[in-house]
Amino acid sequence: MSAPVGVGIIGAGVISDTYLENLTSFPDVTVLAVGDIDTERARAKAEKYGVASWGTADEVLGNPDIQVVVNLTIPAVHVEVSSAAIAAGKHVWTEKPLGLDRAGTAQLLRDAEAAGLRIGSAPDTVLGPGFQSAKRAILDGVIGQPVFAQASFQTQGPDLWHPGPQFLFARGAGPLLDMGPYYLTALVSLLGPVDRVAALGAKPQAKREIHAGPDEGTFFDVEVPTTVQLLAAFESGQQAQGQFSFDSALERHGVLEIHGTEGTIVLPDPNRFEGPTRYVKPLGVLRDGARFDQPWIDVEQEGVVVGRGLGLLDMVRAIAEDRPHVATGELGYHVLDIMLSAEESIENAAFTTVESTLAAPVPVVPRDFDPFARTI
Question: Are 56 and 111 members of one domain?
Fold first, then answer.
């Protein structure tokens, strides 16, 4: 690769704005084209961010100067679009989830490996300075050996504000596959691969109402559980419990705690690239009349805060430096496998083995990683 690396975007929906804003600011990459099934939407995004070319997905794939394709399409066609990019000789960065089924997603990874191409998979929030500062603190031993983890995401549901929320309640979404990747990617990055899971799911409403936009007041079918309780056992012996819900009147986002032999650490919201990290130490021996106050110790956040696109930047730099990147297709596939196993556990009312694993620990991002430096 030579700087700047040519990037093409496929999918000009809402999420493309944050990608385009960030990728057009990184010196190591240049966004050359935006493609979408709605070419006028692609044109509008290209003009907004000063991108020279726009058109269909096929036109993006046919551009010889594009080395990496960013797949921002809907989950149902993630594998199809990513496979087309691999067939066209392009590296791929894809929004989550990597795919919706094991067979097609695993074949995508095999095709990329055979072609000598890389796949990166969102979420890339785990590359943010908030999470990375917390991860370094855990590796430095501030809580001793991690023992168990707790995660929680609960909300009234995206139908409250999204003008077209139907896809978030369809197969491949729901709170587990839509929000679960943030929490599970963070946990796997910290604790390693998951061995088995058990889960319970509920769908209290068969239909939901749209509350915003031109279709306000209309109803749509709910296809997946909208509340999921998850238990995960990791290969390394640790455990985690998670709650993911679109049915809660109480809004509670971003709860991620790791409890260890020598303390407990509270991490930033895994859906954010920054945020505070604090930990407490054990109380020790309690005497009569002793208070249960535990002083919180802050972890300094180190690194440059950006946003989506950070994982793609790390991937292209890793290609140039011949090193592993952080948010790999292998990691994305393992997280998908965990979630699909959880769905199977809901169906079968039993623990389900997670067949996939990781070949190596997820790398730590260097403290001096600067998105705005030219390195290639």
Answer: yes
279, containing H or E segment: strand 277-280
The answer to whether residue 75 sits within a structural domain is yes
Q: Residue type for 158, please?
A: P
105 and 138, same domain (yes or no): no
Q: What is the pLDDT of residue 292?
A: 73
Instruction: Examine residue 371 and state whether it is found in any structural domain, yes or no.
Output: no
The CATH number that applies at residue 132 is 3.30.360.10
pLDDT given at position 283: 81
Considering only the C-alpha atoms of the chain, give the largest distance between any 2 of them, rounded to a whole number of Å.
Answer: 75
Lookup result for tokens 């509350």:
211
For residue 286, the model assigns a pLDDT of 65
CA atoms within 13 A on the CB side of 362: 31
pLDDT for res 269: 97
pTM over 0.90: yes
User: Does residue 347 belong to any structural domain of this protein?
Assistant: yes
Residues forming a β-bridge with 266: 257, 278
Alpha helix segments (H runs only) across the chain: 16-23, 39-48, 57-61, 78-87, 102-115, 129-139, 174-191, 310-321, 329-348
Residue 106 belongs to a domain with what CATH number? 3.40.50.720
- 236-249 in b/e form (b: 16+ CB < 10 A) is eebebebbbbbbbe
Which domain, by its residues, includes 198? 126-299
Which positions of the chain have pLDDT values less than 50? Answer: none
Q: Is residue 12 part of a domain?
A: yes
For CA atoms 182, 230, 241, 193, the dihedral sign is negative
Laid out side by side, the sheet with 119-121 consists of 53-55, 29-35, 5-10, 68-71, 91-94, 119-121
What is the total count of domains within the chain? 2
